[in-house]
Amino acid sequence: MSTPSKLRVAFVHPDLGIGGAERLVVDAALGLQALGHCVDIYTSHHDEKHCFDETRDGTLRVHHVVPPFPRSWRGKFHILFAHARQLHLTKFLLRSRMDKHDVFFVDQLSTCIPLLRLLGGKRVVFYCHFPDKLLANGAFVEGRVQKRNMGILKRVYRYPMDWLEEVTTRQADIILANSRFTARVTMAYFTSLKTTPKVVYPGINVQAYETSVDTMDPDIVQVASPRPTLLSLNRFEMKKNAALAVEAFSRLRGRPTVPNDIRLVLAGGYDPRLEDNIRTLENLVGLARTHNLTFKLVAPSKSSVSIPSFPDASLHAEPDVLFLLNFTTGQRSALLQAPSTVALLYTPANEHFGIGPVEGMLCGVPVLACDSGGPTESIVDSPSSERTGWLRTPDPGVWAGTLEDICQLSEVERAALGRRCKDRARAMFGMEAMAKAMEESLHEAVHMGSINAPVKEIGFILAFVFGLMVAILCRV
Fold it and tell me: What Å distances lie between residue 457 and 170, 176, 261, CA to CA?
């Protein structure tokens, strides 16, 4: 079967905010668009004051299909409502968009896959970040799940959700994974999958990180400083373990080989709709207080999110810890490019991939990350002559010791490390490499031809359609 050289690609993503998964979708769409393909992004949530610039300035076509369902009910049933919201989005696609696209690229949530394939007649490529069943059931350590206490009702609730995730994932024509770590874990816990997902590393727009910044921009002025800076870029979520950065920073300060005026910047996505974000920020502020660290909270001037009020927040310009909520592209670039930035701290353990270390390497910044998950594939720790960063166990004392070593690097050592970082980031994690790998998979999917659904799949889709009807009729 002949396939068009230029494809009409539809991305389906649940929530187009400013996290790492969203950055991947944006960069993948930009990369495919640069290769000449026609790209559209469909999402159930897109706040133009809480998103990446390319999704609001016309660079990418984004279709925000507002669902009749909330994200949760009293802070619970997140995954159930996520399924309902995507089913609503799928209904919109099936009704009015199927003839406008050759192939669908779905990531994070697999609910829509069998419907797009069997009712829409389109091939689907699914990009797997990490099985939700492992994220929901407890902290994941490779080889086992450290399960949290879960009542009988929660187990009854999770069982069909976990089953649905696996059975819809395996419906995809091609499954991609963001790292060898994710591919390995997915195969281990989704035992019905027949083939190992193909690894396509997330890529980033190199040019966006090399563009000069406007140092007179008020948003950049409020975060820039000549003081030595430790930087952490992560969403304000418990699983990101930014507390490790605060603990290590408190142990580092005061050491004779460390500058007295060193500061810590914790920058990341913050959504007041999410209880986890609220609780995480409160805990980090509490940790700063415990260690007698002055702190301040700031946000971009155009942010729609109000800065939470803490009576003892520092009012002077140079606190020990700066919390930057929902940073802009310019603020991120300014912090990563600043000669005063000593290191990037990437605190999550067993992270599926982790774009943060790649961002740091691309800007020549030394990176300290946990010795598990995706960062073990992006960072080279040894031999020292090839090092692009440090991989260490997530222990505050160990991290403080390593940060002290990083602070003592000579200018020559830092320059050599920076060159290695940039070379590795460009060669392995550039947007062009990711886009070409995704293009190959999309062409492969389209080349599979028309879909002939067996009786078993038809029965499955009938049951699925019934669930869709119930979800849409039972609006909250």
Answer: 12, 22, 63
Indicate if the pLDDT at residue 471 is higher than 70: no
What the block records as the tokens of 333 is 């670039």
Nearest to 395 by CA among 259, 229, 244: 244
Alpha helices, DSSP H, located in 236-380: 243-252, 275-290, 329-337, 356-362, 375-378
DSSP states of 56-79 as a string? Answer: TSSSSEEEE---SS-S-BTTB-HH
Contact 228, 340 (CB under 8 A): yes
Q: Which of 327, 399, 388 is nearest to 363 (CA)?
A: 388
For residues 222 and 386, what is the distance between their CA atoms, to the nearest angstrom? 36
Token output for 331: 């603020």
Mean pLDDT, range 363-369, rounded to an integer: 97
Which pLDDT score is estimated for 86?
93
Task: Categorise residue 449: left if φ over 0, alpha if ψ from -120 to 50, beta otherwise.
Answer: left
pLDDT tens per residue across span 204-238: 888 888 888 899 999 999 999 999 999 999 999 99
What number is the average pLDDT over the span 117-126? Answer: 94
Residues 257 and 410: beta-carbon distance below 8 Å = no
Q: With beta carbons less than 8 A apart as the criterion, state whether 286 and 279 touch.
A: no
Does the pLDDT of residue 143 top 80, yes or no? no
Q: How confident is the model at residue 149 (pLDDT cuts 50, 70, 90)?
A: low
| Alpha-carbon span 410 to 387, nearest angstrom | 15
Beta bridge partners of 11: 41, 105
Cis peptide upstream of residue 383 (ω within 30 degrees of 0): yes
Cβ-in-10-Å burial (0-12, 13-18, 19+) of 352 comes to buried
